[in-house]
Design brief:
alpha+beta; 19 helices; 4 strands
């Protein structure tokens, strides 16, 4: 069996196909020496692992055995693997453990039919994973954009593949978190950003002010916002013009002024001005 699943120092150690999983760490089998050096497992663990490691799986029966493994971390690792057959992903999509289903929903190799089935899962985390999957088609994203759980709508709003009409609808969502995700999406059109820059919630306006795609006229308006956090976000935006940064350098709130001083655009302009002045002084002194 091409797997080792055991506990070591509170980590589940798995050898699956060409990889070793330990906690949040992932190693190639060729990096076993580094794995040993980091976790210093006992000799019998190494022996057991190599005894069970036989290379890539070739028989569907081997995958089927792993999909029924009593250790949930093994099933999760299998659900994440790029080489897991569709038949096994379908089995794992019905796993009793929701984290296994999350792993299937996150796998870019998961077929549309399975993603569609998982988009109706009872767990919000599973539907969120479907909404985040780069292979999820627009039809499913459209359905998930109307999900009762705001967290699912939030992920749809942040997906760069989400069409403009869905983003437009979500920009009027009752949840400020969803509207903020729309404002953060790099593909959100200027028209929607302009509307969100006037949102009642300052947190949404902050995100608009932070978006590098926000036009200068919107940044200029937000630089005069009543809430200092919005002005600070404008001051931190690397795309904010130097004219606006100069005005914000005199802001009443010190955090806004600090943000200006850290802005690479402002720092670069000040540096160029200093060099220019230094050059003039050198010429005059001659």
């Amino acid at each position: 069996m091409t797997v080792l699943a055991t506990k070591y120092l509170d980590h589940t150690v798995i050898i699956l196909d060409d990889y070793i999983y330990c906690g949040c760490q992932k190693f190639q089998v060729s990096e076993l020496a580094a794995f040993i050096a980091r976790y210093n497992p006992p000799g019998e663990l190494i022996a057991e692992g190599w005894a069970k490691y036989t290379g890539e799986l070739t028989q569907l029966e081997d995958y089927q055995d792993l999909s029924k493994h009593e250790n949930v971390d093994v099933r999760i690792a299998l659900a994440k693997h790029f080489n897991t057959p569709v038949e096994i992903l379908k089995v794992l999509s019905g796993d009793s453990d929701y984290l296994t289903r999350v792993a299937v929903a996150s796998n870019p190799q998961t077929p549309t039919a399975i993603l569609s089935a998982l988009s109706t899962d009872v767990y919000g985390e599973v539907k969120e994973a479907v909404a985040k999957n780069p292979k999820t088609p627009t039809k499913i994203l459209r359905t998930l954009s109307k999900d009762d759980y705001y967290g699912v709508r939030e992920v749809v709003a942040s997906n760069p593949k989400t069409p403009n009409d869905i983003l437009s609808a979500l920009s009027a969502d009752l949840s400020a978190w969803v509207r903020s995700s729309v404002a953060k999406n790099p593909k959100t059109p200027t028209k929607i950003l302009r509307a969100l820059s006037k949102d009642d919630r300052y947190g949404v306006r902050e995100v608009v002010a932070s978006n590098p795609k926000t036009p200068n006229d919107i940044l200029s308006a937000l630089s005069k916002d009543d809430y200092y956090g919005v002005r600070e976000a404008v001051a931190s935006n690397p795309k904010t013009p130097i004219k606006i940064l100069r005005a914000l350098s005199k802001d009443d709130h010190y955090l806004t002024r600090v943000a200006v001083s850290h802005n690479p655009n402002f720092y670069y302009k000040v540096f160029l001005a200093a060099v220019h002045l230094w050059t003039i002084l050198i010429r005059v002194s001659k």
